[in-house]
Amino acid sequence: MGARTLLATRFDSSIRNMKPYSAWKVFVNGLTGQKGWERAWRDPEPKAQYDVVIVGAGLHGLATAYYLAKNHGITNVAVVEKGWLGGGNAGRNTTIVRSNYMLPGNREFYEHSLKLWENLSHDLNYNVMFSQRAHVTLLHSPAARDGAARRYNTMRLTGSDGELWDLETLKRTIPHLNYSPDARFPIIGAMAQPRAGTARHDAVAWGYARGADQHGIDILQNCEVTAVERNGSSVTGLQTSRGIIRAKKVGFAVAGNTSRLWRMADLGKLPIESHKLQAFVSEPLKPLLDHVVVFGVGGAHFYISQSDKGGMVFGGDIDWYKSYAQRGNLPLVQDVAECATSILPCLGRVRLLRHWSGVMDMSMDGAPFICKTPLENLFLNAGWNYGGFKASPASGWYFADLIANNRPDPVIANHTLDRFARGINIDERGAGPDPKLHG
Prior knowledge:
Distance between the termini: 54 Å
Strand content: 25-35%
Low-confidence stretches: 1-16
């Protein structure tokens, strides 16, 4: 009890010593040449041993470290990253946040994540620029409307929000969509989640990094894991480009590189494939779209919003062949451009500014893993498919809880590697990379 009390005292002390950002500090630094700002996080040397080592300084890894300290008082933690903080999928996505899921497991998980998003800037004392501009799913047939109504009624009955928009409401709200009756994808209405929206991906990474660092957590950049050391059924340490790091517990949160680390731990194969997911941004435009607009019909998959800088940010399906590349290819560029102009013809003459790819960890059923592994002190956070960004706060919250308590919270009880053998379905679509078609 005494040790726990001492730990809590250290934890509370670290909170009191934080120097929060404020409007006053912005004003004062504006008058003094911006010379009064402190470094947001340290660049420490690795210790010989930690209680917990998280591999991957993306949003999930940083959030896990932050909640280990904030929720559980575990601060002897390192986050190791082979490159720079937030340089992987954290900086390569379309920043959409939503919780419009229906089935048990996903429903509670993503709703908790959205609630964390709603207070995240205050919690981290860092503006993550979360804009609740609504997530609008276009509907193209009566069957699609019926299916969406079932989902959104389930959301409303379980404490979330959702609205069914008829065609006239949609036209008043977003007037410049292609409402022609002979459009490639005729629109009959939409389902909307008003509390959903977008956030600034790099600000989220920086906010979690700053929060974790304030609790004494070491963020070790340019520290690539080259081997996993084992003793029987336990991990004893990690060989890295900055030396050997011993750990009592290890968590993997490395997205599309999960299979590589899994093989380093000599654990064989995972039900995960790594695929590229491309994203695009246009040249800056005057305010055009103040919602997130999504549709999926006839094999097409498309989502678009407008950033604070004016660029139209959009994306679509994964590249169906397996790859670790962080660059896209032209067939998907054409596919996504066709989707964009079919729904928003006014974009036809807009220039594409740049495009990029994230390496997606695609599970076979489209749902993630937050679970223990065959090694008693190794924990897995992977398989996020298209949903990693919006899941970041809840992913870190529940992964930290799993690592701290060595057992899953009931919300993630079925996010396990053995759910396939048990016939558990978490995601409504129930499909990831479709290897039967594209293997």
